[in-house]
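User: Here's a chain of 248 residues. Predict its fold as C-alpha cells.
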Amino acid sequence: MQWSDQAIIIGVKRHGETSVVAEVMTRVRGRHLGLVRGGRSRTMQPVLQPGNEVEVTWRARLDEHLGEFKMEPVRLRAARLMEAATSVYGVQAMGALLRLLPERDPHPHLYEALDVILENLHDPRDAGELFVRFEIAVLNDLGFGLDLAECAATGTRDDLIYVSPKSGRAVSRAAGAPYAGKMLALPGFLAQGGAADFDSLSEAFRMTAFFLHRHVYEPRGIGLSAAREGFVQAALKALKPQSATILP
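Assistant: Prediction complete.
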C-alpha cells in the first residue's frame, strides 16, 4: 500500500531512540498517523513542527497498519507561529479539534480551512473569527451542525439575534423574545457578516463552547482543551476595551 498527499503537521510523539510517530492532516485522506524513521534527527526536527506543510508519502504492507511516512518540506511556518500568543495556542487548539474526528476520515474542506487559518493566526481579530468558523465546521462534520441562516420558528432571515440551545438553530428577535433568558446570543458577524468586535467574538466563543461541550466533550468524558482557553484569552485581549472583562 502506498499513497502521496499534501499534509499539515498537527502533532508528533517520540517513538524509540531515533523515530517519531507523526500526526498529520492530509488534503485527501483526513487525519493520519505514520512512523517517521530518524524523525528526531537535526534534519527532520525543524520539519516535524506543528503547522508546517509537507508532501508526505505513506507506505505499509496492509492498509490497517500504522505505516511509515516519508516527508518533504513545502512550507515551514512553525517559527512564525511562535511569534504571537494566538498562533502558539491556535495551532494546538485546532489540532485538538481535528483529533475529535475519526482517523483516516476525509475532510478536505477542513484541510483547506486549516491552511488558511494558519496563515492568519498572527492577527488576533482575523484569527478569532476564523477559529470560530472552524469550530462550527468541525461540529458540522461530527453531525451536530448549527443552522444560523434563518429563524427556526418563522423562517425569516432578518433580525436574527438568538441561537436555540436545544436545536442549534437561529431565532429572530421577535420569535425569541419570550424565551430570551434561555437563549444563546447569535454573534452579529455570523448573522450579518462584517468584522467581529470584543462582544460578538466573546459571544461566539461561548456559543461554540456550549455546543462542543454538550454534543462532543461531555459524552466522551473530556473537557475543552487548555490550548483553546489560551487562544480565547489571547484573541479577546487584543480586542478588549478598557472596561471589559475577559470571560472564557
